[in-house]
Amino acid sequence: MPAECLSNGRANAPRRALARHVIAKAASAMRILATVEQLSAGLDYHLARHNLLVTNLAHADTPGFKPLELERRQGFEGALHVALAATQAGHIAAAKPPAGGEDFRVVQDVSATASGPDGNAVSLDREAVKIATNQLRYDTLASLTQNELSGLAWAANDGKAG
After folding, report:
1. Are strands 68-72 and 104-108 parallel, antiparallel or unpaired?
2. Which residues, 6+ apart, have CB-to-CB distance to 80 below 8 Å?
3. Which of 21, 47, 76, 146 is buried deepest, with most CB atoms within 10 A?
4. Res 100: pLDDT
């Protein structure tokens, strides 16, 4: 009995299936690191915000100084919620930051009002609360990042402790 002649499309089918498998594996590996990248972006934001809030405190005696704030270009609270709650592949992913830089910018704090005759709008109590809250969020993200990286290290070592 003669050997079956395969068309070019049928002959290449196993190669296409292998290529799809390799691409799917690469995409899966990128999803593993996506969580770490989101957490890293959160850490960057809170570090930059801390520096800005400390600068506001340093200008507490500067006449006419208006405090500054860091604003996310996209909804941070929603992105943080998604980053923390996206535990299954079917969950909605957080929006990616724009290419080429951070997804936050410095703006004037419009909720601050001048309280003294010199026109300075920095409230020491308010800035201290902002710094404490920001530090708590930074510590939480740092802990989540450490746990994520520990899990990746555990997996990379085939389930053996480092």
Report:
1. antiparallel
2. 42
3. 76
4. 40
Q: Which residues lie across from 69 on neighbouring strands? A: 107
Query: 162 in a domain, yes or no?
Result: no
In the chain, the number of structural domains is 1
pLDDT average per 10 residues of sequence, the chain (162 residues): 53 63 62 84 94 94 92 63 54 46 80 82 93 97 93 84 64
Q: Is residue 93 part of a domain?
A: yes
How far apart are the C-alpha atoms of 140 and 156, rounded to whole Å?
A: 24
Query: 0.90 cut: is pTM over it?
Result: no
Residue ranges making up the domain that contains 150: 35-156
What would the DSSP string read from start to end of 53-115? HHHHHHTTTSTT---EEEEESS-HHHHHHHHHH--STTSPPPPPPPTTS-SEEEEE-TT----
Q: Is residue 68 part of a domain?
A: yes
Q: What confidence score (pLDDT) does residue 139 get?
A: 97
| The pLDDT value given to residue 158 | 82
